[in-house]
């Protein structure tokens, strides 16, 4: 009887070790996915903010540099410190022309690369197209 209890304790420890690793990987995956979705939301709003800033009628029209500065300012206010690529197409155009603001951001995984090989980073993109007023 005593031998059965000792074997059960050893098996329970082994089961815990196997399940705990899987459980931690799932928890960190959920956290990582949440951070990716947060980053995607921020760059989407940044591209929308830049496009809206560029399409509002002004004389002279907003330049590409001004729109890029507005997007960069929005990202810095949101806590982004990593570099982004901001592409503006159609700035300074005539009324009814399209203005496109695209933001590309490379997301670097925080925890998952240690657990899952091949997960070093991904590129998130957001593009907003609006008509000039």
SSE order and pairing:
Blueprint: H1 2-55, H2 64-77, E1 84-89, E2 98-108, H3 112-115, E3 121-131
Antiparallel strand pairs: 1-2, 2-3
Q: Can you characterise this structure?
A:
This protein is 54% helix and 21% strand. The protein is of the alpha+beta class. The relative contact order is 0.17.
Give the key terms.
3-stranded antiparallel β-sheet; 21% strand; 3 helices; alpha+beta
Radius of gyration in whole Å, from Cα? 24 Å
Decide which structural class fits the backbone: alpha+beta
Q: Give the N-to-C terminal Cα separation.
A: 85 Å
Q: Tell me what portion of residues adopts beta-strand conformation.
A: 15-25%
The ordered string of helix (H) and strand (E) elements is HHEEHE
Strand order of the largest sheet: 1-2-3
Number of beta strands: 3
Q: Which of globular, elongated, flat, extended, rod-shaped describes the shape?
A: rod-shaped
Number of helices: 3
In the predicted model, the low-confidence regions spanning at least 5 consecutive residues are none
């Amino acid at each position: 009887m005593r031998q059965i209890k000792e074997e059960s304790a050893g098996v329970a420890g082994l089961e815990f070790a196997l399940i705990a690793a899987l459980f931690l990987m799932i928890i960190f995956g959920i956290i990582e996915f949440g951070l990716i979705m947060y980053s995607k939301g921020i760059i989407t709003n940044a591209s929308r903010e830049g496009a809206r800033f560029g399409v509002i009628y002004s004389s002279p029209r907003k330049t590409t540099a001004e729109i890029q500065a507005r997007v960069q300012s929005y990202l810095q206010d949101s806590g982004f410190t990593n570099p982004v690529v901001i592409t503006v197409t159609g700035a300074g155009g005539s009324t009814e022309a399209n203005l496109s603001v695209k933001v590309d951001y490379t997301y670097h995984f925080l925890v998952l690369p240690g657990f899952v090989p091949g997960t070093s980073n991904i590129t998130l993109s957001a593009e907003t197209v609006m008509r000039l007023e």
